[in-house]
Each structure stands twice: as C-alpha cells, then as structure tokens.
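Readers outside the structure-tokenisation community will struggle with the description of the input data as it stands. What matters is that the chain and its backbone geometry are given together, residue for residue. For illustration, here is how one protein appears when written out as sequence plus structure tokens:

…
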Amino acid sequence: VAVTAPAEIKWVRNSAGTSEQAVMFGDPAKPGPYSIRIKWLPGNMSRPHFHSTDRFFVVISGTWWVGSGKTFDPDSTVPVKPGSFVIHYANQPHYDGAKGEEAVIQVWGTGPMTTESVEQPR
C-alpha cells in the first residue's frame, strides 16, 4: 500500500502560470497507467487542444469548466462540480479550466499520451 497525504503532494506550476500539476502515479509520456492532479488557478483556461488517448477525470474541489470544439469560447463552457466524472475522448478538441475559483481535478489514463493544439481563430 502506498499513501500520499495532501501535504506530501508535490505541485509544479506550468510555464504559463495558469495551473499546477502533481504526478500521483506513473508518467503520462511513458507506456502504462498514470494518474495526475491538476490545480487550475482562478481565471485561467486552456486553449483548444486534444490528447492522443482517452483521459478520465474526477473533480476534487472547486468548479471545473469544460468546453468542446476547435474555437475557444469560454462562455459556452459547462460547470462541473466536485464528485463529477468526465471523459475526454482521444483526438476530440476541448478546452477547460477555472473561472472564479480554484479547481482541482484528478486525471488518469494510459500512456504514452501527447497533447496537440488545434485552436482556430474566433
């Protein structure tokens, strides 16, 4: 059995300063299962992108906002509350993040997983 207490989670801020990520298990870039947590900082959302594999999410805290399509439209996003389960299917464009409050989500899937931007002008 391996237990990681909340105080032991090692959060790393992304280069854009929009979110923090913690690898809980495995490595999304390598073959095999992985689990990560993403902490979306208030007022930050990803731009349209897709992943090479299916990814599965549970919202731990806050409200996570999700939208789909190649054109970024934050007004069309749907609020996802704690305890909710979401699937981002492989190769389907989407965008997501936090609006007025921090949102923490747990993500898992099978690697290797890659991310590709697909944004088109609005």
